[in-house]
Amino acid sequence: MLVLAFAAPVSAADPPYFVTYTHHMEEPGALELALENLAGRPQAGERFLGSLLEVEYGVKGWWTTEFYFSGQGTRNDSTLFTGYRWENRFRPLMGEHWINPVLYVEFANLSGADKTMKEVVGFDSQFKQNTPNAEARVEKKREIETKLILSSNFKGWNLSENLIAEKNLANEPWEFGYAVGVARPLALKASPRPCRVCTENFRAGVEFYGGLGTRHEFGLRDTSHYVAPTVSLELPGGTTFQISPGFGITSASHRFLLRFGVAYELPGLGRYLRRLYR
Amino acid sequence: MGSRLRYIVPVMAAACILCLARGSTHGKTGMSGSWLKNVPLHAGTRTNPYAQDQDALAAGAKLFQRHCSSCHGKDANGTGRVPPVHSVTVKSASPGALFWLLRNGLLRRGMPSWSRLPDEQRWQIVTYLQSIQDR
Question: Which of A119, A214, B8, B79 is most buried (most C-beta within 10 Å)?
Answer without folding.
Answer: A119
